[in-house]
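Work package 3, deliverable 3.1, input record:
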Amino acid sequence: MSDPISALSLRATHGSVQVSDTGVHGMITLRGDLASSKIRSLCKDLVGLPAPAPREVQVKGDAAVLWMSPDELLFVLPYGSVADSLARIAKVLKGQHHLAVDVSDARTMLRVDGPFAREVIAKLAPVDLYPGAFGEGQVLRSRLGQIAAAFWMSGPQTFEVICFRSVAEYAFDLLAASAAAGPVGHFPRGT
Amino acid sequence: MRLRTNGRLVAKNRPVHFTFNGKRLQGYSGDTLASALLANDQLLVGRSFKYHRPRGLVAAGAEEPNALVELGRGDRQEPNARVTQVELFDGLAARSQNHWPSLEFDVGVINAKLSRFLPAGFYYKTFMQPQAFWKHVYEPIIRASAGLGRAPETGDDHTYEHFNVTVDVLVVGGGIAGLAAALAAGRAGARVLLVEQTSGWGGRAVVDRPSIEGISAQDWVNATLAELDAMPNVDVRLRCQGAGVFDHGYALAHERLTDHAPKQGGPRQRLWRIRAGRIVTATGAIERPLSFAYNDVPGVLLAAALRDYVVNFGVAVGERTVIVTNNDDAYRTAIALHDAGLDVPAVIDARTSAKGELPEQVRALGIKVLTNSGIASVDGGKRVTGVQVCAQDGEGTVTETIPCDCVAMSGGWSPVVHLWSHCGGKLVWDEPHAFFRPDADRPPLGADGEGFVIAVGTANGHLFTAEAIADGFSAGRKAAKVAGHTRKPGQAPMGDDVAEDALTPVWIMPAQAPYKLRSKMWLDYQNDVKVSDVQLAAQEGFQSVEHAKRYTTLGMATDQGKLSNINGLAVLSNALGEAIPRVGTTTFRPPYTPLPLAAITGVARDELFQPIRKTPVHAWHDAQGAEFEPVGQWRRPYAYPRGDETAHDAVTREVVNTRENVGLLDASTLGKLIVKGPDAGKFLDMMYTNMMSNLAVGKCRYGLMCSENGFLMDDGVVARMDDDTWLCHTTTGGADRILAHMEDWLQCEWWDWQVYVANVTEQYAQFAVVGPKARQLLQAIGGMALTKDDLPFMQWASGQIGGFDVRVFRISFSGELSYEIAVAAGQGAAFWDMLVKQGEAFGLMPYGTEALHVLRAEKGFIMIGDETDGTVIPQDLNLNWAISKKKDDFLGKRGQLRSHMVDPDRWKLVGLETVDGSVLADGAYAVAEGVNANGQRNTQGRVTSTYYSPTLKKGIAMGLVKHGPTRMGEVIAFTKEGGGFVDARIVDPVFYDKDGEKQNV
């Protein structure tokens, strides 16, 4: 085995709003009945967080659990803990219809951080990002330019973005270009 | 000419320098290019499209049809800029268009002398015959003489961007009605975006100066803006045009950020993509020209436009201005000119009497008012020298000649209904005002079944301040309420202006004008369409307004008929003897004014034009100098040329080496879908034509997927992972499509089946190690057991190779001993490097997609997209062995039973070998005897894949041929590129290792 590498090797821009590759993360897609108590308790087990409500995300440090669809969660946890976590899921959900797969290497995680980060995303995603309509604790699966992406806010002016690994460069360059073009001034700064 | 009076927008202490056709001119900060040109007495600004007649400014806003110029040079060059919308800046360089050799002297004006040979429908009539003339005579001539600006020749180095917003209320138009709407909605607490296309707020009111709430319109506008600016829920944007309204409250607005300040950083333009609960269109109205003879001579312009130039910019067109009107509003221009110290020799009013407040004020200023009068003809060539007056109800007998250098005309107003109409809002004809206005009972409907566009103010047909401002305020309150914002916004502002008498519609001046005058009355200035042209169209049977438009080109120029449409259709309806509302308008389509392609493109250019998907080994391929080919959005290496090799040489080498030693293919792009659940087997039996439920754990099976109609849509190897889990490989382009296909069936049809699907395509890098030395290489690296007994053909196992966690599939798309090895994507590059390094000793060479194709074609393996094109069923490809007869049902089964699907005459797959060993052309047809009903040669087959086989050292091909499998050995003729035929023999499509011994060792 060699050390796993992210698609962009921690690339970053410098500017008022910074775009950076945050490296490798463990990620597990879990599909199942999200109302089941076993799946809810798995959230506590795996990342120490409560199960997220629809369109929401629970975050603690680098760990997170995201509501991805009515029957799908995404766990973000340390890369090295994926195998154990998958085993844990299999054990807890034995006999209950579900699907759990390792998608750590299939994705790229980028961070957009700065006073007009919200506008950088709004230039690219056809969704309502008005403060109040979207903020910390919520997650959106949408598009950035021409690719699928999911994003959530990990701070008042910080977005975490997930996209497929193969389009990591496109996503990075797109976000970097939008950040370089400056603020729009539509959303209040720093929100 | 610049007046001594100050314009409200210009700062005379801040001069600005610019050039027009290379001439250095001066304006002031606050000028538009239009006002600055007028200040320099540059009345002539362009030439018309067809007759190259001299053209001057007619309007002061977005409706201007004549004054289009080219701005900038090189990578900043931009054609067709409307000077009325260009704000002056230091160093601006403008050039006029559509003339040769110069603006002042244009030989194209000869077209005007020939105008009686260029009537409506000229193009249709003339260019029909003779056919050969089109290519060699007409087309080159038209190209040279037609067209406006030149397309830029270099790239554009500006930045453009999009911005997505969701608002409760979008207000388009920053006049008093729009401001009132934004104020009401903003006070109610709604999220509001207010956009205004010009660089200033207040619309006509700040020029015409009614009072609002007892203060001047300007003071009210300033106070309102201050209040809006203080609201965090309201965003107001100048230089931002509401460009289009689309379904579901989607709207586009085009913001020009640095056009007026080119030295400022940041994006040049921004396209706002707006989702609005309600859209309030406060887009105002456009004044209509009057149709009198020679109304196109420079110096004839709209009355309100002239007022704008005088009041806003302190410029005028001439010293002596004759005003011609059919309404009271134009008298304001007389007053404004008088106030500016200019001479108004007469107001010519087409009405039989003019006794309103404004006409009386004008008379009181000592200005002559001539009623029941019109202009018989305008004197002058490149500028007005006088007008000939006649009775409006007569035939144009001249009663008086008035020398003047400017004519200000007003034929009434037309509400700007474009945005209301873009998405289907209907119009009613308002007889007293003689205009079309929005029909509030038939708005464009949104998802809730309610109208989502509300037209207000003059755009809604309210020409007076009190109604306009109250209308805007009420709409803003209503729109906010729909979004749940019920806070009371207070009382609507009270507006007040002088009362006006009714207008009298005038479509031709004078009413009984003979042909000689009608053939000089311009309707469409840019496209040179005259009253006589529209009348000719009616006479020739063009009754539909849409047909007449296209026949005459009325309203088809870059201004899209903002000035000409209503006048043109009134002339048409009179000619047809129909009422105007029965003839109706042409369709209003977005955008309101042309949108630059760069703004539509936004950031999606150059490197960001489209996403390119890259495998974990992409950088290595690139470093090796691989030639890439696009496969969906992926880039895959086509071949890896070495040294001086051509791509063809490289493919040959890669094929031979793979057959003799060992090849390495980056197959990471293949789709990988995990299908899991108690019903997964049942589900896959429906998805694939063959059985997948009975596949043993650890084994692999090739499967075919069909659409409901039975056509082949994808193929790939399916592996059984455990009791209730399968891994389905799809084609490279198929992963997303097949995932969606599966989810569609699971969510919409078999929602009660317990199956989950996940796309893990990008989780793995997957490499094919292919060739007789493949096993030796992997064993040398060391790890899991890979002998024939440990891992037989069509089985898979997981383990380690060289210390990497891997999953190994014994599958082959080349006919060779082959291991496809999946490794986590993050370790893909390291694993590949190890294979390349260790493979050296075994003669390993990477191969690209073309070698992959040759290898599979030599084995007669089909490829989705080559052998299939959406019309091919598995039976056509002799794949009956992969269609289960045991299953009750699978997707496509019913389709494949239809009569045409079981027709024995369907073309079927065969191999093809040219008699002379050459390579058949891709897509070549096999010809048959005779011709079809269209006189085309009959066909009996076509080539689907064709390659030079380095292994067999000749051309090989596959194709679909009528009754092909029963015609083995027969020689048939195929078409050749560049003409002629080549003979090919029908053979078995498996050209190499028919018994499959090599892959099963």
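The radius of gyration of chain A is 17 Å.
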